[in-house]
Amino acid sequence: MQENQVHRKVFMYLNSLPSAEDSDFVNLFSGDNKPNEINLVINAAHQIFSDTYLGSRIVWKFEKDSLVLKMRTKEKRRILSSYLQHIHNVTDEIQQKTKQIRLHINAEKEPERNGRWISVPFTHPATIDTAVLDSDLKNKMKSDLESFLKSEQYYHRLGRVWKRSYLLYGPSGTGKSSFVAGMAKFLCYDIYDVDLSKVANDSDLKLLLLQTTRRSMIVVEDLDRYLIDKSTTVNLSGILNFMDGIISSCGEERVMVFTVSNKEQIDPTVLRPGRIDVHVQFPLCDFPAFKTLANSHLGIKEHKLFPQVEEIFQTGASLSPAEIGEIMIFNRGSPTRALKTVISALKSNNDTVIASKTVSGTKNEEPLRLTHSVSVGGALGVPSGLIGHGGPVGLPPPRLMHSGSARTVEESRETRLFQRERIPTIKEFKKFYGLLKTKNSKKEFIDFDGSEKDNSRHDIML
Question: Which GO terms describe its molecular function (predicted)?
Fold first, then answer.
């Protein structure tokens, strides 16, 4: 079920030989990154290519789907092993120079000869540095990824498969997918985006995993949606085996990334250490994140309206980074107008939340601000810990406050209230960007041992 890596490398090596330019038949391909660039690739049909290694003449011949290597019998013992290692070294060097990250998606039906994966060049511009996250958290993520890349012998000494798994969780629009792109570019790994809706059953999911390659990132987005939907063809057992079952050991140097909107809705067995090594929270926008967005989207680091924006954030109002970013993009020609529109949207969101609380009888409940956190542990020998900050222990669970363009949704455990209102101050913006957001609840951070932690400051517990 897997691609023959020796065949792939030999084919790449033969294309690098000077004799390839003299081939009678070649295929023409446009470049992945440069459409005006034309690449010549040898046509494998019944052609012969010669090579020289350590003074010996070597001949390669294409026959159907196979490559035939011919050399003198008396020289085979002397040069065969070192020649194949030479091909391996040359192709690795070529790959490093011409590495192009590719995005693989699983097809519903198996295409002829190409397996279940269809790939395209991955040119997403996002990086880890462009993510709207705390700078310390981004540095910790980079450090964790770099440690993983250097830990092959360490993992093997522990008797563990050389792979690392991450959970990115938070409301829609907080930048999880863009962060996945940044991780892939940082690692220079291909992405295999698994669409569970196109998977026939648990066995089909295993076959997809078998057809992935080393140095790849396997991504499952919106995992919570699939786990909640009982009608899907892949059950919980299939997901668990996919994450860390025997089948997951058939290939190493992999990173697995799962994204969810609400971590609390996921079965704890999915999140246990070993299946998920690092938890990264993507919260709604706060004032420091707002300043980052203003700097990147509007080119301003300070503005006379910043104190007013900070004051509104302190009342508990918030929007997702995607919503605030879209407002700034729409009004990028006038930073002042963009900030005023953000202020209007935040006030509208805050008024709606207060009104909803009044109706539901929770007017005096103080919302907590959500902050960045990452829980690191397990795979590199570091006990599970917690990095982050938040409100003091004992306060009620923080509430996620989402803003929609014309509708807001208030959900509580006892009742569900839907309100509709018009906001003239951002009417023009709402024509371009409107989302229906749902509030949910968030519990205090709990370490893997089940004890509550004081999250009032950044710390790491090892």
Answer: ATP binding; ATP hydrolysis activity
- If we measure between CA atoms, which residue out of 83, 122, 80, 81 comes closest to residue 101? 122
Closest CA to 116 of 206, 8, 9: 206
Euclidean distance between CA atoms 419 and 355, whole angstroms: 9
Residue with tokens 């009742």, as numbered in its chain? 415
AA identity, residue 129:
D
Amino acid found at 85? Q
State the 10-residue block means of pLDDT for the chain, 462 residues long. Answer: 80 82 75 68 75 89 84 88 91 78 83 71 91 92 95 92 94 94 94 92 90 92 86 83 84 92 89 91 92 93 93 89 94 94 88 63 40 38 35 37 35 35 44 40 35 37 32
d(CA 378, CA 274): 6
Do the beta carbons of residue 7 and residue 68 sit within 8 Å?
no
Among candidate residues 318, 314, 325, the one with its CA nearest the CA of residue 284? 318
Cβ 99 vs Cβ 188: under 8 Å: yes
Residue 203 contacts residue 210 (beta carbons within 8 Å): no
- Residue entry with tokens 């023009």: 428
Of 437, 269, 248, 270, nearest to 353 by C-alpha is 437
DSSP 51-105: EEETTEEEEEEEETTEEEEE--HHHHHHHHHHHHHHHHHHHHHHHHHH---EEEE
- Distance from C-alpha of 293 to C-alpha of 432, rounded to nearest angstrom: 19
Backbone angle region of 222, left / alpha / beta, with phi > 0 → left and psi within -120 to 50 → alpha? left
Torsion 369-173-305-300 (CA) sign: positive
Quote the DSSP letter at residue 384. P
Q: Is the pTM of this model over 0.85?
A: no
Rounded CA-CA distance 449/462 in Å is: 12
Phi and psi at 66, nearest 5°, equal -120, 160
The answer to whether 212 and 192 have CB atoms below 8 angstroms apart is: yes
Cβ-proximal residues to 327 (8 Å cutoff; 6+ apart), any chain: 338, 341, 342, 345, 426, 429, 433
Across 291-311, b (16+ Cβ under 10 Å) vs e yields: bbbbeebbebeebebbeebee
Can you say whether the dihedral through the CA atoms of 229, 231, 233, 235 is positive or negative? positive
What's the rounded Cα separation, in Å, for the pair 104 and 120?
7
Which three-class secondary structure state does DSSP give residue 337? helix
Distance of alpha carbon 207 from alpha carbon 294, whole angstroms: 45
Termini Cα distance of the chain: 41
